[in-house]
Amino acid sequence: MSEKETRDPATGKALAWGWGLLAVSLPLGLTLEALHALKVSSYLSSPMRRELWTLAHAHGNLLGILCLAFAAVGLRTLPDAASRGSVSLWLRLGAVIMPLGFFAGGILNYEGDPSLGILLVPAGAICLLYALGRAGLSAWRVAGS
Amino acid sequence: MSTGRAQRVFLLLALFLTAPLTVGLCLSFAPDPEAIAAAKPLIHREEGNVGSETCRPCHLEQHASWKKTYHRTMTQRAHPETVVGAFDGQTVRYMGKEARPFQRDGRFYMTIPAEEGSREAEVVLAVGSRRYQQYFEQVAVADGHIYRRLPVLWHIGWERWLHMNTVFLGPDDADWDAHATRWNDNCIFCHNTAPRPGIEQGYAFDSHVAELGIACESCHGPGEAHVAAQRNPGTRYGYHLSGEVADDIVNPERQDQAEAVSACGQCHGQRVPIEDELIVDWMHTGPTYRSGDDLLDHVRPVTRDLPPPKTARQDLFSQRFWSDGTPRLSAYEFQGVIESPCYKQGPMTCGWCHSMHGGDPKGMIYESMRGNRACVQCHQDIGADVAGHTMHAADSSGSQCLDCHMPKIVYGILETHRSHLIEVPDPARDAEQGRPNACTMCHLNRSPLWAAEEMQRLWGDAYRRPGYRQDKAPLEMSDAVASLLTGDPVQRAVYASAAGRAGRKLEDPGQIHATLAVTLGDGWPSVRSFAQRSLATYDDLPTELRETVAEWDHTLAEERGAMARAILDYLNRQGVSEVPTYLTDDQRLLALLELQEGRIISIGE
Fold this sequence. Notes:
The structure holds two protein chains of two kinds.
Chain A: H1 3-7, H2 9-37, H3 41-44, H4 47-77, H5 81-105, H6 120-144
Helix pairs in contact in A: 2-4, 2-5, 4-5, 5-6
Chain B: H1 3-29, H2 33-38, H3 52-55, H4 60-67, E1 75-77, E2 92-94, E3 97-104, E4 107-113, E5 118-127, E6 132-141, E7 143-149, E8 152-155, E9 160-163, H5 187-190, E10 192-193, E11 199-200, E12 204-205, E13 211-212, H6 216-220, H7 224-230, H8 233-242, H9 257-265, E14 271-273, H10 279-285, E15 299-301, H11 333-338, H12 341-344, H13 373-376, H14 380-384, H15 386-390, H16 401-405, E16 410-412, E17 415-417, H17 427-432, H18 448-459, H19 479-486, H20 489-498, H21 509-519, H22 525-535, H23 543-551, H24 560-574, H25 586-595
Helix pairs in contact in B: 19-20, 19-21, 20-22, 21-22, 21-24
């Protein structure tokens, strides 16, 4: 990654947030494994909680990597600084909100349904879709010019 | 380290610790399924019981297979997902009175007869899961509350309501409360896990169970010590790597023979405490047997010769067995197994045929074990030439090991079941002891004399001719016909059921048709039910007749005589069957029905 990319506010923030997400999500995976090893019943006896927290772990890591990918190619695909900044913001918001929603959905869940924290997931998904749409349109324009 | 770098390291460490700390914090106040299950009404966690939710995380497959069983759903709280009966407001009538099961606001009720008019009873517990579901209301008593059985049940297979009086081995009876038993000191014992009736002097009821239905700890014993030890991954991997087996939990399959059959026998073998005085403790804290023990160290199995309680009918226990002591009701399988040569002289346990975590939940058995494999897995020499052993064609029912050695001579829940006392058929013994005989349950027109002569012809002089029939009917008469006309209620039920079996042999179908028609007039509704089902299986009868029989409501006691007469007349008029002359005369028919042996068999459920 060039110095230009790290100095650009949009890609620079995506870079920091990407590593930050990985720094949280990777230890989450370790934590979940520890819960298995120690047979912590309040985790293992709730299939819903297990599924949601596993999804939180997976999405946190993947979206962290997506942020890093944006940091790497953002300048080339989005030459307009305003668009780049907007995409970076919505991408970072979505990347944090979506795994957070999965995690929150598994905290106060009861039997077959997740808790209301799960509503953060569609909110995060909308942020990500918006970011993806803007990035896609911009990349299309760049490719056409 | 510069301030900026220290800040970055601190930030990174904080990020790393975010997930573990958040998870720990969340789990400290998140709902715990185990705690939720333990906190429900009726549930206790005494004596190291932990509940099946605790077993699931480690034993996912076993938990899933158990979840498919009828054991799990044997007792359930009443709610829309567990109640299978049609609470649709339709009226259920029996012997001049009526009940009306209905729903209101998602809850289940029955309007039932009361001393003055009728009353509403709310269903709170549902007991039974495969063949029928019974319903219980909660009734406040002086100190606590009890659960009392309601008078009609839902037959799951037939999708209809039945009055309790029509499913036991008793006659038509207008007493709607004849079977209004109490869950707290009856059903609780065998339809739940780790029952504690909680009955104290003064009739205070505080009943609890570790789990409603038959769950893990019924067979594996209390799991608390196992859970505590195995929570440590080092302990678990130590066992995995060493191949050793943890001794902190019971696996019946690894126990010795007596202990293994005890796990099933604790329920599938009616029993009383080993000492009479212990009944007080049973009613307070439950039976003393725990899985892994030898059941006979804790109980006396109910047998024909066991004296009943002083306050009970003196034939209470003896009637549950054929005259030679062979069990003839379900829930006595343990008594049959431990008297079988395969158990006494061989290694057989319940697990040789049945499987708790595989196969068909109906019977908890793999399909192959319903056939000859059950026997030839040990008797391999016979398996090599089955027809040579049976003297019957290899593909006939006469070459089915179970039909001869475990015939369906046991009554329970409106079906006949295989005897679990594995033995050799003996026509002389059976005629003299008033037992149905495996040979004549298939060869329906044949007599005990014929069966004995065939046994002598095929297997030698070890078999003798019977000297008499216990019911005094002529020895030359068809065993099935004689039993249906003059036998006691279990004899009649067994032969009425056998008459509908696949593979039956009929030299004179008319005789059986006519006798089954007479049995439609039987004074015992459960016996009528077998005759009705069997008669409807005869393809040689006109469709119109079979449909009339199949659609008839056998619980209508007031119609039974007319129904029997109508079917006999039809057979006679149409000439589709040659009706024996003793059945064509009204007076003689009524006299025969009066002669039927009328003892009431107390099933004890």
